[in-house]
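Student: I would love a firmer grasp of how sequence relates to backbone shape in proteins. Thank you; the sequence and its tokens follow:
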Amino acid sequence: APTGTAGHDPAIVERLFALDPDRVSGREVAEVLARVPAPRIVLFQGSFALVTMAPLAEFLVAMGYPPDRVRHPRDGSYSLSSFTDSRQIAGTLAWYYESEGVRPLMIGHSQGGMMAIRVLHELAGAFADSIPVWNPVTDAPLPRSVIVDPLSGDARPVVGFRLPYVAVLATGKLARVLLGQWEMPAKLREIPDTTEKFTGFAIEWDLIAGLFPRSDPYLAKGSATVRNVILPAAYTHIGLPDTLHLANDPATRAWIEAYVPDGNAALPDSAGVDTTNLVHAADIWHSVKRHWTIEARRLVGAQRRGAE
């Protein structure tokens, strides 16, 4: 059985199903979501070794996300290298779902965004017909390419497994070519059906990523919902994960709590308020809360039906 999912307070379950996933308040995060299963979030850093995704992980935790669902279960790290095996990551994502009962999320920065997109293509069967399940705790593959769906009990292959949400920050084609990743530029803007929701964040004139005005947008190959978000020009490629300060400042935290995508709310303009990286931090947190709510409902609902 998935870990940490049994014995929910009926009052909490009732409140969980009463939430509006698109308008979850900070109080509801603390009083409801913090007491139900949360999806594993896999964070991929870019190719610059000194720039990790730890600040974004710390931001999510400061906003109320469970730290153990952002840390790697083997070494406790917040940020994964983008120089890794995408097939292994695909097998790991399926393991998380089988073991924890909620589908994981992925967020990648720069080359880490390329890795996230490559994993989606792996899951779509673009590089191999089967993918072994990978245990991240033992860091070893299992002798099977099929998981048991923890909600239905049905066997399902890793290939075809679908994530709820993936986001990428400042991921361009130029670096992929320079790093010799020849098979990815053609696929980099095509988002397969192995995620339900995808958001691509970009800064125009981002020379590191090779992103220019009217650069190719991300497009769905099928039924995935794909959003392209242009970030303020003052943001920097390397600095995008630096978001912890936004959770710690009352003005920016309040703005984040009230944020809805495409709401066009004016940024805080009080003296001394640092709004750097506020747009994507708020958008990511909104999506994380949304899918936390939906995934917890899927699991708790299945458990409740099984107990009837």
